[in-house]
Design a protein that fits this description.
single chain; 217 residues; alpha+beta; 5-stranded antiparallel sheet; 5 strands; 11% strand
């Protein structure tokens, strides 16, 4: 296995918002190919309960985009009210947060224009389960979702793992005729990305995040 290529894929699969190409069509066969890879991910008890709602209808995308934007505005207002006093973060952290915020605003404004939306779903309702069963349910769809994002990235397509649409999950389920006993896990805007390649992001050192045998040891 070519670890250089694998490691690059794993360390450069970014959340793509500003660099999505809203004008270039995405071929259905590419989506189907990536989904074939995604369903090789493990599921709890090998239940294989994942489902993928692919949305390409312009009117439906526009409506989902409206609901996403409304949810984002509520979220943004809440974040603004809880923002820490100026000066608590380093300039570098503030600059990075500003870049992320701007890209999130950009995506919220244009979500309904993306060529393809993919909503990963899982059979069952998460709110009807206890903590362990909730973890199992999400653990049966999130690995496939990440595999899907990796497969897209390897083919020159960008995506972003978003969940703000879930504020209006019922409305979107009605729009797309998703059964009531199915849980929506995320919303991926999918498009070819513009510009050059991606680089690994700046992260907190793993030594500050990893404990061996005892917490904080």
């Amino acid at each position: 296995m070519d670890l250089t290529t694998v490691d690059k894929l794993l360390t450069t699969t970014r959340s793509v918002r500003r660099r999505l190409d809203f004008d270039r069509p995405v071929e259905p066969q590419v989506i189907e190919e990536c989904l074939e890879i995604a369903i090789q991910a493990p599921t709890g008890g090998n239940s294989q309960g994942w489902r993928f709602m692919v949305v390409t209808d312009a009117q439906k995308k526009a409506r989902i985009g409206e609901l996403y934007r409304e949810s984002f505005q509520i979220y943004a207002r809440s974040r603004a009210e809880k923002a820490p006093p100026a000066g608590e973060n380093s300039r570098r952290d503030e600059a990075q947060s500003m870049r992320v915020a701007k890209s999130a605003v950009y995506l919220a404004k244009r979500m309904g224009e993306v060529p393809v939306m993919i909503i990963p779903c899982i059979n069952g309702r998460v709110e009807e389960r206890g903590l362990m069963a909730q973890a199992s349910l999400y653990g049966s769809i999130l690995p496939a979702t990440w595999s899907l994002m990796l497969a897209l990235r390897a083919r020159g397509l960008g995506s972003a793992y978003t969940t703000l649409h879930l504020r209006y999950e019922k409305e979107i389920a009605e729009l797309l005729e998703i059964p009531g006993d199915v849980t929506q896990a995320a919303l991926l805007p999918v498009a070819y990305y513009t510009g050059e390649d991606f680089k690994p992001a700046k992260r907190i050192p793993t030594a500050d995040l990893t404990y061996w045998n005892t917490w904080e040891q």
